[in-house]
Amino acid sequence: MKIKNYFLLLTLIALVATPAWGLGNEKGKEAAKTKASIDTSADVEKEKKPKKEDVYFNLTGGTVHTVTGGVLRDVSILCKNGKIVEMGQGVAVPENAKSLDATGYHIYPGLVAADSGGIFGASAENSTNVFSLQMTLALAGGITTAATGNTAAKMTFGSTEGLVIKRDLFKTLRYSTIEPNARYELREKFEKVRQYLRDYEAYEEEKKRDDEAEEPDKEWLKGQYQVCLSLFKKNAVAKFTANNAHELLDVCDLVSTFDIDAVIFGAVEGWTVAPQLARAKVSVVVTPRRRDNLDERLNRASGSSIENASILYDHGVSLAIIPANTSVTLWGLAGRDLLHLNMEAAFAVRGGLSEAAALRAITIDAAKLLGVDHRVGSIEIGKDADFAITDGDILHYMTHTRWTVVNGEVVYDKLKDTLFDHIRPNGELESPPPDDYWPRSLGADQ
Amino acid sequence: MRPFVKMICSDVKLSLSRRGARQLMLLAWLACVAVMPTAFAAGDGESTYVVVKAAHVITVSGEEFSPGIIVIEDGRISAVGSGLEYPASAKVIHAVRETVTPGLILPRARNGLPTYRRTGVHGDQQAASEVYLDERDFEDYLKAGYTSVGIVPDGEGIVGLASAYRTAGDDDARLLKADAYVYAIPDWGSQGKANLRGAFKKAREEIEKVEKARKEWDEKKKKEAEEAKKKVEAETSEDKPKEGDEDKVALSVVDSLEPLNGEEEKKIDTDSPKPEEVAKEKEAQFVPPKIDPKYQPLVDMIQHKDGARMLVRLERASDLLHMFDALEGFDDLDVDIEFSNRRRSSDLHQVIEKIGEKKLRILLTPSINYQPHTTFRYNAAAQLAQAGAKLAFTVSRDIPRELRRGTQHIAELVRAGLPIADALRAVTLEPAMMMGVDKEVGSIEKDKSADLVFWDSDPLDPHGKVNRVMILGEIVWESDKSQ
Fold first, then answer.
1. CA proximity to B352, closest of B327, B388, B404, B397
2. ipTM given for this complex
3. Please, which residues 155-194 of chain A have a Cβ atom closer than 8 Å to chain B?
4. CB B188 to CB A127 under 8 A?
5. Domain membership of residue B340 as a residue range
């Protein structure tokens, strides 16, 4: 009986409680409703702002040289808002996608120049002329990213959006044999900062035991000292210019003594000290076509060598290649300016460097050296949609860039820009070059 | 006295919308325009009428009349059409072989004023402070048919306010608008973009400064009010027991007059601080912190004040994109652009569609340009007009020779595809709008001032010459031939 009563009581409680419950639930629902309505209003506010539509770009056909993932054929590369999102066969392409058929052409990642001049303004984001002839010429050379001053920027022709991709690339240090005092001072500074870091570590240890431990003085830690500190902490990369063997060895010594990341520009005699450079783990930027005569007075190998890049690469030194002149000059007539970045790499191949390594030295390795390899330098999903589409092997002397794509936009078209339109080495005459009479008429024909 | 009343009415309307400096100027103008005709009118206070009978009248804003009649009442156009009636007392100007158009307007000129290097933001500088009115200086403008001209300050950065002038007439009526527009010549080659952005950011900070001060003041007032309330409440709560006490005292002393006196005293006590408080409140009215006068015009632009506008000088097509970047976050600023396409090759063609899309007003030198490094010629003005941009023309240099050639250059553009209507608008109404004086000049419309040019043939005829120029209903210049 007791159990029965118990059940009865339970049912009664249940009966009494249900309406209350129901009410509670309804209240909850109402609350949820109001919440939902607030959310939707927020959505409406968002919608009021002009929402940018996704821009798709589809690159089909052609031979894709991914640089980091081998060579692919008959694939399409789908890009969304300037980034590669899908790559392969049978990619579903949205209807509003702009597409470019590159059948018969070679698709490379946009080339990366480790240094440049005259293409971007003194302050890249403030004063770059994004319609300049210099930029068009660089694009015609297949270059899409370049370092300018201490900034890495992209050649977003006709737009200022996404121009700068990295600031403060390097901390430039002077460590030259002709300035012994400066060398001494720099070394002293590194020593002092290293001592400070040791003292600080000791202080931290001491603090665990003694609360009244004194922090080492850091009032003096300014200017160049701060640079040294950031290098010690590996927040920055040091940039040296060194060409002679002994200069290179000195830099290697400094770099390995203090364990910092460093890039050496020049390295003409790098081939004579390649093992030391490799051991110091420095990256170098070389110019294969640079000519320095050997010094007859020296009892060692000296001067430039066409094998420089090849020897350095074989020893495992990270390599980027730039031409002797890092701006676009003489409209490329001299052939040793930035317009011929690919030719400079081809000369390294002439000296024994493998073609793959030469390509790396003007794409992914150059990007790594600048610290922008997460954005550019190879054709990979998630990276920027920057392509140099050429009518042949990019290291071949007859090859011309047919299209250049930056952020999923065709910014150079050989047949539309009048610069190289008349040069048709492969005899493609489907669309004849325009008559070059003067003056051109105004009006409908344009 | 009908016209006088009308004038006053119009002045009241204007004074509501415009600022003090302009009011003064307008009043001065009023004094001359409204008083002079009454002085000359035959004593009855009747209006003076001038009637122009022309072979052809191009109104710019409306239809064309040939033959056409323009009726001018006290220097203002009162009617335009063909076969209009006019008072018999009117002075008739017979221009039976002439074409009459509104006076041309040059929105950017330096008029031979000295150049000087001034950098930074100078919103407090007006070109009017540099201008010394001299008839001879403006004669070249009259010869070329210009009746209004915008004089700009010189320098680099935000150089100051341009001032709109009439090129002839009574000195008091010369100044049309002292603060026509802010003129900016950013140094696009280096820090121009950063400086332009910085200037507008600073202006916004100035606004925020005022808003913050206002908020603080409001809060302070609220607190004071609350405290005062509390005090009053406290006083009243203190008073009540006092009254009770007094009542008790009264009851105990049994004197009926004393409590009454006490109440009267209290009334006086409570009343007496009130006027003081009112006075204090009056004294403590919110005084906003002073806005840096250099940034005042930019502040006005951000706050969308009437007539606050800017003209930005661009050197290359790329500068337009940099300008958009610099002004990002400041919505609907009234910004016109000036494109320096003086040299033969210009990359303006790169941004024509962008300018058309945004329906910007662009000030150009009327010339056919080459695409840089090519032999491709293009008619930027025609393409801009087609794209939907608003065109205004200036001259490559404001020297007499170029002034006279202005219309010839425009004629060349018309020959190469620019619609005539757009071309005429670009030297009359659009520049007037650019300077914010389009209610006063720029077209032949009712109530606008009678600033007219009489051409011996079509204004865009390369052989055409200016015969006469009228400003505020008076012929101010006449060529030797027409006499």
1. B388
2. 0.81
3. 158-160
4. yes
5. 104-193+291-441
Residues B186 and B227 in one domain: no
Tell me, what CATH number does B305's domain have?
3.20.20.140
User: What residue of A is the nearest CA neighbor of B373?
Assistant: A133
- pLDDT of B318-362, one tens digit each? 999 999 999 999 988 999 999 988 778 899 999 999 999 999 999
Which chain B residues touch A160 with a CB distance below 8 Å? 318, 321-322, 325
Residues from chain B contacting residue A442 (CB–CB below 8 Å): 368, 377-379, 416-417
Q: Please give the model's pTM, rounded to 2 decimal places.
A: 0.81
Which residues numbered 194-253 in A keep a CB inside 8 Å of some CB on B? none
- Answer yes or no: is B479 within a domain: no
B7 assigned to some structural domain: no
Q: Are residues B311 and B262 in the same domain?
A: no
Cβ pair A121:B189 closer than 8 A: yes
Residues B316 and B425 in one domain: yes
- Tell me: the pLDDT tens digits for B34-59? 444 444 444 456 789 999 999 999 99
| B246-271: pLDDT as tens digits | 444 444 444 444 444 444 444 445 55
Contact A133 B373 (CB under 8 A): yes
A127 touches chain B (CB under 8 A): yes
**Given an 8 Å threshold on Cβ–Cβ distance, is A160 in contact with B322?**
yes
Pair (B271, B419) in one structural domain: no
* Cβ-defined contact of A127 to B379 (cutoff 8 Å): no
Looking at the structure of chain B, the number of domains it has is 2
Shared-domain flag, residues B309 and B412: yes
- Structure-token pair, residue B272: 């007496």
pLDDT category of residue A211 using cuts at 50, 70 and 90:
confident
pLDDT in tens, B203-256: 999 999 999 999 999 999 899 899 999 988 887 776 555 444 444 444 444 444
| B318:A126 CB<8 A | no
Q: Which residues of chain B does A417 touch, with a Cβ-Cβ cutoff of 8 Å? A: none
Are residue B278 and residue B303 in the same domain, yes or no? Answer: no
